[in-house]
Structure formats: C-alpha cells, structure tokens
Amino acid sequence: MLTNRDTQVLQDPHRPAFHFLPEKHWMNDPNGLIQWKGQYHMFYQYNPHGAFHGTIHWGHAISRDLVHWEYLPIALAPTPDGVDKDGCWSGCAVNNNGAPTLLYTGVYPQVQCIATSSDDLLTWQKHPHPVIAAPPPEIEVHTGGEIRDPFVWKEKDQWYMLLGSRIEGAGGLILLYRSEDLLHWEYLHPLLTGDANQMEPFWTGTMWECPNFIDFGEKRTLIISVQEHPAKPLFAAYFTGRYEEERLMPETQDILVHGNYFYAPQVMRAADERYIMWGWIQEGRNHHQSLAAGWNGVMSLPIHISLLADGKLRLEPVEELKALRQEHYHFENLHITPEAGLPLDIQSDSLEIEIQFPADLKTEAGLILRASLDGQDQTRIIYEPAAQQLVIHRSNPGPEVDIDNQSAPLTLAPGEPLSLRIFLDHSVLEIFANHRTCLVSRIYPSHESSHHMALFTQHNPLIIPRLDIWNLKDIWE
Ligand code: FRU
Questions:
Q1: Is residue 443 within 8 Å of 367, Cβ to Cβ?
Q2: Which of 137, 171, 260, 337 lies at a CB distance of 3.0 to 4.6 Å from 196, suitable for a disulfide?
Q3: Is 29 in the pocket of ligand 1 (CB under 6 A)?
Q4: What is the 3-state secondary structure (H, E, C) of 179-222?
Q5: Are 410 and 339 in contact (CB under 8 A)?
Q6: Does residue 359 have a pLDDT over 80?
C-alpha cells in the first residue's frame, strides 16, 4: 500500500517517467549488470533508509526488453559485524559455469567480497571471508586504503579482476589481478596508471573508480570514473588501445559523457553481443531539496556503445527505446528567423526529439525546451559553430538548483549536418549528437506549466530539413 510519503515522491513533477529509478530513497551506481535466462538484471547502489548516500545495499530489478523494469527484493544488505557492515559498494556479476556470482566491495576498510545465488539471482549467499582483504603490499601505503569496484572477466580459462585505486599525490590507478577460481587472487600489476600532473586532453584526477574493460577485438577500451578530490564535479572517461602483456597501451582518450551528472557507468555484454551501458545520473538540486523530495538519483537510458575507426566510442540509445514512442509529430523544411524563432505547439515533459540542422551552419541555433510563456524559465540547447560545441543554458528563476552552463565539444566535418537525438524526461535531459557525443543534464523548471518549445537561430534565417517529435510512454504504467 502506498503511504502519503510515497504518493508525494510519485507526484514530484521532476520525477522521471521512462528512466529506471527506485520507488524512493537514494540510488547511485549501476552494479552487476547481467543477462540471465533471457532477462536483464540490474543491481544498483541503494540506501533503503533515505534519499542520501549511506547504508549502501544492492537494489535489484529485472527487465525483458531493457525498457520496462520490475523491482525485486534487495539483493545484498550489509551484514552487522561483517566485512561489509558499513556498506555493499559497487561491483559486478559473472556466470561461473552456471553459478551466478557477485563480486563487490565491502567497507570499511575496503575489501573485495563474493556472493553466489542458487535461485536465479533472487537471494545471495555471501562467502564468509573477503577474497581480497587488503591492497597489494607493495603499494598499500600509497592507496590510502582506496581499492574498490571489482570488474571481472574470463579469458583463456583464467579469471581477471580490475580494481579502482590511486597512488596518493600521483594519480588514479587500475589494478589487475588473476585467479583460477574467483576465490584466490594474485595481484599482477597496474593495467593503467594515471598522471594527475597531465592536463591535456583533460585532467584525469586523483582517484579512479568503477573500471570496465571492453574487448573490441584488436582494441580494448577501459572506462573509468574520475574522482577529483576534493573538488566536484565527477565524470567518466575512457582509454582505447592495444592490450599487450596484460597492460593497456592507450592510443586514444576522451570524456565518455559530458555534463557532470553522468557517473560510474557499467557496461553489460548482452547475449546478442551488444555492449550496453548505464550510468548513474546525479541530481542538480541540493541535498536538502532531495531529502525533502524523498528520492535522489536516476539511471541513464541504456546506451549501446561501439568502437569508431578513430578509437573513439559511438554512443547510441538502444533500439528497444523506440517501443516508448506514442504520438508522432513530423515536420519538414521549417523556416526560422532570428526575429521570430519558431514556437512548436507540443507541450509535454516526456519527449524524444530528432532534429537535423542544415550542413555547414554558420549561426548559433538550437531548441528551447521547458519554457514558461514569459521565457523566464527555459532551457536552451545551442550549437555554437565558431566554438564547435554543443551547449546547454538553463535558466530557472525558482529555488536554488544547478544552472551552470554545460558544454560538449562537437566538431562537424565539412558537409556533415548537425543531428540531435534528445530525450527529455521531466528533470532528465540526454542529448546524443551525431552518434558520437553525449551530453546529459538536469533541469528543474519552477513552474509545472513551463512546457513550451521552440526552435531558434541567432543571426541568419535557417531552414530545418527535418524534425520528429514523439511523446514517450511512462515505463511503470
Ligand atoms: C562511485 C562509488 C564507487 C563506490 C560506490 C559507493 O560512485 O564511489 O567507487 O563503490 O560509489 O556507493
């Protein structure tokens, strides 16, 4: 039965309707993503005691289609007096010859734990002892005890594990271990070591969390989540290169998703061989507002990732999301002028938009979303050809929420039109640009009536060749 409190959570106008999130309270990282007997299982960092990070459990949900989810009972809870008494932190799931197995970090101190299930992932039996009880002795003092988020895979009959860590004062670090049986682990060496003094092409911070290692054949990609102690914000990045003598030789590196809300992604290998990624999307309202709202954190849409010829990742929402499309609005050759812009008579806060701009844009142009009639409340998605970047400008006159501008570099080849696929789900905004750049943001309009949309161009008139908009279904109905 729903309590008044739950009703309030569900009626929050900022609560997403087609993204996965728990019924209430706090969530962060996706964990243990695995396809098992035809169903997708998603576990996630969850606090059943409130909308704040604490007493971390593993929440659990299943889906048959990557879109609709069903909640299952909590999978892992801290054991009083156990090595995970202060929390069951992030980790992964593997199929060990038919035995579903979770590897995760117990705190404090940070140790690596294992649990198995004999009822198709519903309940879990923890192994009584950690499988890795301390950092490797040769670097223990340099890690500050931070060693976590096991990522495990099998290769040539051996199990391998990656752990996120750091060398204090030097940079992030990913450690590589090997095992025959998932229980006894031998530390090999770092898979990759970061350099906190290196500023280009971007700073990779001082601590690396949540590693994922993706096998693209000739090349492999390591995804890390960068913690920039002590300053926020957090972001995820990746390195692509050759895997030689069990070390990654990076040739390309980039930021995975722009916008400072998307963090701690995890990648699942689906039975059809797709690599599908989810990330935790953080809130843009402050701690007190989230506590009052009764929920905090949402999962990104499932994103199909693949490797482009230049070593960068192609990021695309999975095809299955098209099942959410309802009323469809199609427009061609829309004329817009700097004076008038073009208001669109579609008012919804659950939308998918596909828009193509003319090639070789010379003027800043874009879309206005979630606008009030007086324009005080509004979010602008702008492409800036001179700076070759995609920018989000948010203005909300209401209560204190994050409205800093956000941007993502996007260089278009001559003749290549800007093509945006935008998902708006109440406070969540995900933009996929030209299949290769992803920018994620949060917006909290002050008025529920701020639903207006328009196209605009800054300097020259424009003709928009194609625009498609769909209302999207609520996944919980
Ligand atoms: C990333 C992270 C992980 C850790 C978990 C704790 O967001 O800090 O490194 O395991 O969250 O909830």
A1: no
A2: 171
A3: yes
A4: ECCCCCEEEEEEEEECCCCCCCCCCCCCEEEEEEEEECCCCEEE
A5: no
A6: yes
Question: How many whole angstroms separate alpha carbon 419 and alpha carbon 229?
Answer: 36
431 lines ligand 1 (CB under 6 A): no
Instruction: For ligand 1, atom 1, name the residue with the nearest CA.
Output: 264
31 C-beta closer than 6 A to ligand 1: no
Ligand 1 in reach of 28 Cβ (< 6 A)? yes
Asked if residue 1 has pLDDT above 60, the reply is: no
Centre of ligand 1 to C-alpha 255, Å, is 19
Tokens 């390309």: give the residue: 252
Polymer length of the chain? 477
Written as one letter, the residue type at 74 is I
Q: Which two tokens stand for residue 158?
A: 């051996």
Q: 341: CA distance to ligand 1 center in Å?
A: 44
Nearest CA to ligand 1 atom 12: 89
Following DSSP, what letter does each residue of 221-286 receive, concatenated?
A: EEEEEEE-SSS---EEEEEEEEEETTEEEEEEEEESSBSS-EEEEEEEE-TTS-EEEEEEEPPSB-
Handedness of CA 314, 324, 449, 4 (dihedral sign): negative
pTM over 0.90: yes
Predicted confidence at residue 182, as pLDDT, reads 98
Q: Which tokens in the block code for residue 399? A: 């209560």
CA of 88 relative to ligand 1 center, distance in Å? 10
CA angle 407, 411, 412 (to 5 degrees): 125
Q: Give the mean pLDDT of the chain.
A: 95
The mean per-residue pLDDT over the stretch 216-230 comes to: 91
Pocket test for ligand 1, best of 210, 225, 234, 280 (most atoms within 8 A of CB): 210
- The C-alpha atoms of residue 209 and residue 227 are separated, in whole angstroms, by 7
Q: How far is the CA of 320 from the centre of ligand 1 (A)?
A: 29
Instruction: Please name the amino acid found at residue 273.
Output: E
pLDDT in tens, 243-267: 999 999 999 999 999 998 999 999 9
Q: Which residues are catalytic?
A: 29
